[in-house]
Amino acid sequence: MGNESGTWIMYGVSREDPECIHTVDEAVEYINKVGFLPLFKNEIPGFSLEERTAPEYWWSGDAKSDPWEWREIIARSGKVAYGKFFDKKAGFISKQWFPYFANFRRDGYDFDALWDDEKASIRQKKIMDFYLEENAEAEYFPVS
Length: 144
Prior knowledge:
Layout: E1 2-4, E2 7-9, H1 24-34, E3 36-38, H2 67-77, E4 80-86, E5 89-94, H3 98-105, H4 111-116, H5 122-134
Antiparallel strand pairs: 1-2, 3-5, 4-5
């Protein structure tokens, strides 16, 4: 998304373009295929959800066609991680790629080592403890 002379511009493709993503399921499928995807246009041409969708559907409020609405649906689904992963900008990461991003962000540490070396906050520790207690039986973000 760009701003030219005070006007916001969405970069995307025609709805008829074979590269166009039309549904939230197609978006999840594409994210899982490529591994990770920023929400908005960035330095890599064509590598964002914005540039793979039709601009006229953004902010329409229709969850079936609005990529802005999809981000919430995707985040709630648990099929793909959503957050500010790309230089403090929003995007998606597949479950397969998430462990690599987490390790990179942790500078190679696992969470326990971060905590032991006092490089993690108490807030981060509480979040990790919550998920470990609530989901002790579940396996999250497996690498295949």
